[in-house]
Specification:
five-stranded antiparallel β-sheet; mainly beta; four-stranded antiparallel β-sheet; 12% helix
């Protein structure tokens, strides 16, 4: 199989093909066997495939469950729930280390899945042929292709070694993200300038315990016009406490998006559907902006940590803002570290 310095499974970019180095490395992640048959070395970095072996019976059961479902009619939360039930879970990488050096940034990946009884994926035919030894006991599998540059401080050394034909990958370490499950809540409420405080109660989806959110409205701001394609949009921020507090493996998510039809500005420009969202709509990421680095997060009147959330984005600067508590993320699998070491190391 000819592999180029790209994460794409679909395109054939220009340039030289990589030098193959056999790893035959396998590990188990989230209950699935994962295989990295080899790496392909280039002067800039490496390319490798993570193959996940899948059970045909599990995929058939999931396909039957999805029969008759119109995906366009599903809500965002319903779609998420269905995705979580899919038998295949990709390997989500937080860190990649090559020969003991961490790759800081710049790597990319794509993925595809082979389910012959539903569709035969053309882009995976070369994969199936190249890795037939690893796939001889299954017809269903997934492939993620990663394109990873060499660590910055090692690039010059690796280029020299490549010229000497000695650019061997001695160690490759992969660190995954935490695996989280999303439980929908879907609670809507209004906050206005007249509300000094507001209490909202919700029941924990797994512990059957009631929590109270104590809100304080902060301010309504106009989003930068340049970022909003010339339209005016407004969003309201609020702070809140959770009593009793969630544990460190749990975080709330608020919906801070808007879907709207953009009016045509020219006779030849049709109306277009758009969607905008605020990064950090979940309570975890936004709460970090309430304190400087190394400082403790501030506490509210009830003595627990203050969090920040944002309302739904609106085209009107009204007296009240709509908030939607989408749900709660609960970590069910911690970060994992997997390391390959070349024989003799």
């Amino acid at each position: 199989m000819e592999v180029y310095y790209s994460a794409s499974l679909w395109e054939r970019p220009r340039g030289k093909t990589g030098t193959k180095q056999v790893l035959s490395w396998s590990f188990n992640h989230l209950g699935r066997k994962r295989i990295i048959p080899c790496v392909y070395r280039f002067s800039k970095g490496i390319v490798f495939d993570i193959i996940t072996l899948l059970e045909k019976e599990e995929l058939e059961d999931f396909a039957k469950k999805c029969e008759g479902i119109n995906e366009e009619e599903l809500s965002q939360n319903q779609r998420r729930q269905l995705e979580q039930e899919h038998p295949y879970k990709e390997v989500s990488l937080a860190e990649i280390w090559i020969n003991g050096k961490r790759v800081e940034r710049g790597y990319s990946s794509t993925g595809s899945i082979q389910i012959p009884f539903l569709h035969d994926s053309d882009e995976l035919k070369p994969i199936k042929s190249a890795y037939k030894r690893n796939l001889k006991h299954t017809s269903c599998f997934a492939c993620q292709r990663f394109c990873v540059p060499y660590p910055k401080e090692a690039k010059a050394r690796m280029r020299i070694r490549r010229q000497e034909r000695g650019d061997v990958i001695n160690t490759l370490k992969l660190v995954t993200h935490e695996e989280q499950i999303f439980y929908p809540i879907g609670q809507r409420f209004q906050l206005s300038d007249l509300d000094k405080t507001k209490e909202i109660k919700f029941k924990h989806p797994t512990k059957e315990r009631e929590h109270t959110l104590y809100f304080q409205i902060e301010e309504s701001v106009e989003l930068p016009e340049q970022a909003m394609l010339g339209e005016k949009f407004y969003v309201t921020s609020a702070t809140y406490e959770i009593v009793p507090a969630l544990n460190e493996k749990e975080r709330l998510e608020f919906d801070s998006t808007i879907s709207y039809k953009r009016k045509a500005t020219h006779t030849y420009e049709p109306e277009s559907a758009s969607s905008i969202g605020i990064i950090g709509g979940a309570s975890g990421p936004t709460s970090i902006f309430l304190a400087g680095k190394g400082e403790e997060l501030p506490k509210g009147p009830h003595g627990v940590t203050l969090h920040t959330c944002f309302s739904k984005i609106s085209t009107d600067k009204g007296e009240s803002a709509q908030f939607i508590l989408q749900g709660i993320h609960i970590t069910n699998h911690p970060k994992e570290s997997y390391e390959y070491k070349r024989k003799g190391m």
